[in-house]
Amino acid sequence: MTPKMTPKMTPHILQHLHQISRQEGFQILYACETGSRGWGFASPDSDFDVRYIFVYPQERYLSVFDPPDQFTQMLEAEGEVLDFNGWELGKLLRLMSKSNATPYEWLQSPIIYQEVPEFREALFALGAEYLNPRSLVYHYLGICHSSLRAGIDGDQINIKKYFYVLRPLLAAKWTADKRSVPPMQFRPLLNQLDESIPVRQLMEELWVAKEQAKEGAYTPLQPDIQQFITEEMARLRELADAMESSPQDPKPLDQFFRQWLKD
């Protein structure tokens, strides 16, 4: 199973990226797809979630007033919803210094719209130095908790929210067990579970149903999956509580930022 992409939307996406780059006077270093299309379990009517990293010319940073560090736009084209969100490089690096999960995910996207050569590889390598497994596990468990609370209605759950629980839960498992950055896509995360485990097969079946269901569809809660979620969240929280965090040197972040500044 791979993320589904409508090729006809790519020109619309590239056109908007070019337009905002020219309008705001910044350079886009990297642009990709996130959300369900990037994670690998898009529904037939899933939105496009376009994310990009940009940098201003050096002179913009020598202003009394800081330039905007984030741009968000919602557009429609040919009946599709396009959700754009761009982060300035300095903002992204500050979040990366705190082991924020978002940069790691963007940089692993299987759908790349635009990139400056070597930027993605260099930034991902830098991010690995600031990985804080404890922080990352807590982050993903927080998403699990919020999605469970928001998605359940009686004995049913929004099927999209089910995956908003399962994917971060498996990402937390990867981080806690391997002490490394978890994959963005659902397949390698799911492959952590042995095929002989019944809950693995239930998740495979749920995945098929998710790809066929429309946004907002509900599905019955699966007792075995619910038990797995409860037990695994408790196990991972206990592991995270025992992990230690250590401060990181900010100098490599400054060096990276200066290296990629636009002349």
Features:
263 residues; alpha+beta; Beta Polymerase, domain 2; 2 domains; five-stranded mixed sheet; three-stranded antiparallel sheet; 11 helices; 8 strands; 51% helix; 17% strand; globular; disordered N terminus
Mind explaining what this structure looks like?
With 263 residues, the protein is α+β, with helices and mostly antiparallel strands. The chain has 2 domains: 10-130 and 251-259, Beta Polymerase, domain 2 (2-Layer Sandwich); 133-242. The chain is 51% helix and 17% strand. The protein has 11 helices and 8 strands. The strands form 2 sheets. A 5-stranded mixed sheet has the order 3-4-2-1-5. The longest helix has 20 residues, at 159-178. The radius of gyration is 19 Å and the shape is globular. It starts with 9 loop residues before the first helix and ends with a helix.
- Describe the largest sheet: 5 strands, mixed
Helix content: 40-55%
**Count of domains:** 2
Q: Topology as H/E string?
A: HEHEEEHHEHHEEHHHEHH
Query: What is the CATH superfamily label of the largest domain?
Result: Beta Polymerase, domain 2
Strand content: 15-25%
Task: Report the CATH topology name of the largest domain.
Answer: Beta Polymerase, domain 2
Task: Count all strands and give the number.
Answer: 8
CATH architecture label name of the largest domain: 2-Layer Sandwich
* CA-based shape: globular
State the distance separating the first and last CA atoms.
42 Å
Low-confidence stretches: 1-6
Widest sheet, order of strands: 3-4-2-1-5
* Structural class by sheet pairing and helices: alpha+beta
Q: Could you tell me the mean pLDDT? A: 91
Count up the helices: 11
Assign the CATH class of the largest domain: Alpha Beta
Rg is 19 Å
